[in-house]
Design a protein that fits this description.
With about 120 residues, the protein is an all-beta fold. It has strands at about 1-5, 10, 20-25, 30-40, 45-50, 55-60, 65-70, 75-80, 90-100, 105, 110-115.
Length: about 120
């Protein structure tokens, strides 16, 4: 019912920045909280940041002060501004959306972020 399409991943040097975008389509009125997760090679998937429909945000300790999550409800888009990137930020980043009502959850296809010299 909800489709999430991510963009903005790529290769960046340590200390650099990337902006990830995730555009939702379909039954967008169903969307409540949104967030970004990541899965690094050989590691479990972890939550990076979440944001409510009212734009209250929270972050994993590892990215606090470096990443900023935001959303534009009119554009049905959630963003992740990533600054001061470190090699350990290398991962596949996934966009996530939860249903405002009920237990449905949707995921994007993932976008690769590689931080390397």
């Amino acid at each position: 019912q909800v489709q999430l399409v991510e963009s903005g991943g790529g290769l960046v040097q340590p200390g650099g920045s990337l902006l990830l975008s995730c555009i939702a389509s379909g039954t967008i009125f169903s969307i409540g909280n949104m967030g970004w997760y990541r899965r690094a090679p050989g590691k479990q998937r972890e939550l990076v940041a979440t944001i409510t429909r009212g734009s209250w945000a929270n972050y994993a300790d590892s990215v606090k002060g470096r990443f900023t999550i935001s959303r534009d409800n009119a554009k049905n888009t959630v963003y992740l501004q990533m600054n001061s990137l470190k090699p350990e930020d290398t991962a596949v980043y996934y966009c996530n959306a939860d249903a405002k009502i009920g237990s449905d959850s949707w995921w994007g296809q993932g976008t690769q972020v590689t931080v390397s010299s």
